[in-house]
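Progress against Task 2.4 (sequence-to-structure conversion) is shown through the following example record, which the project officer requested during the mid-term review.
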Amino acid sequence: METLVSIDNAQCRIGRQALLAIGHFAIESGEHWCLFGPNGCGKTLLANLLAAKRPESSSYVSYGPNFDPALDLHIVSFEEQQRLWARDNRFDISEFSGDAQDKGTVVEDLIRASRSRQNQDDVLLADLIEQLALAEVLSKGIRFLSSGQIRKVLIARSLYAYRDDSPQLLILDDPLESIDRDSREQIANTIEKYMSAQFSSLQLCRRQQDILPGVSHMAVMERSGTEMQISRQGLLAEVLKTSEFMDISAVGIEATANLDALLPHGIPISKLREELIRLEDIQANYGDSKVLVDVNWIMTSQDHVVIEGPNGCGKSTLLSLIDGENHKGYGQQVFLFGRLKGSGETIWETKKNFGIVSNELHNKYIKGWRVLDVVVSGFFDSVGLYDESGTAEVDLAKRWITALGLEQWERQYYHEISFGQQRLVLLARAMIKKPRVLILDEPCVGLDDYHRQLILSVLDTIAERSLTNILYVTHVADEQPSCINQVLRFKEQIGGGFSVEQVDS
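Structure tokens generated for the chain above:
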């Protein structure tokens, strides 16, 4: 077997807070590894080191004679999604086009670009399109896809790049996150189908149930103080029996008392049945494509709602119509807190009532902001901190940071902490202004079991002790707070687009 990539005696720092120390780790052709560990243990850092995306790579990483990382290594990750979205947004020319539309990078073009023009394989492309159910999005711009849809596109792009004359390595950073049930099965089956002696993979994983079929080896990562390292590695069946793996996968949640200082004790004074959101016959189209059709829904102050539906059905579109981000909500029967949207209120008057955690917001934060700045910016509904903040605001931000177990990262740069930790920072940002409605668009994406349980526990405490109501989007049936008492389910319409049905939970 040929060694594709190896790391020896590596020392890699993130700022002054963390050190990745790897004695030896190697991937050989035909091996399929799972890099398993909790948030903040260094999985993404190790993957970037392997992929020659760190300055230290040239010092510690070696590649096989037939392996060129620029051609033979492919990555599917949230960071790659963010990079592609940011690039398309940067080059958006819709305001200069005749129809005010710019598709940006089209799905089919993105997939085909992983091969040279002279080396296109229409048979392979057709098979991947069928396996991953991508036919309906081939002509769409990637900016207009849901997070789950673009994940499948990135997997198709990586597998389409497969070359018979050279070993390939595919790095998959939690590929089943933010994916509906049918798509999870499609992705797992497609990846397993293409596993071969010439195709190796490295899956970054936080939860045992997300380990892909076909994985042959496992490396368990852990963090002790400021040092991140591999604590155990070897054949999957052997590592699964070790204490290193079982200690991580069995970790429980510790009750936090930190919320006591932030939320009142006991149940709030019984709230009258107040109408928070009313939608009447709402429509939303993008060009000729129907997205939302005849949507009717009421959310009251006694409701905590979960929204269910497949990738690409319009869940994020619906949320953007409500919170003020989408102009298509104006001129329609959208009522917020008893007032017709667009009847004289400012966008900031609308935003003050909503706290938001979403992929879209996550994508907007780039380098330059410290964790404390991100949380304080929630007072101003800005991406980053541009206004003067007072002592009281900073103090409250610090208490939310502590409540979510992030105090050691307070002065760290947001882009230097793990994806899951960034999600927790966004929850603190959303809650700092005590919103009437907390919108959570897949808030547990990127979180290990401990932090998932932590977020769900925090949300239940918020629902119990405050006047904030929960509006929650998820694809995972057992991943929602127990306070949920209403389900808003998307239903596909015969003529195209989706409507919704409202069900008491």
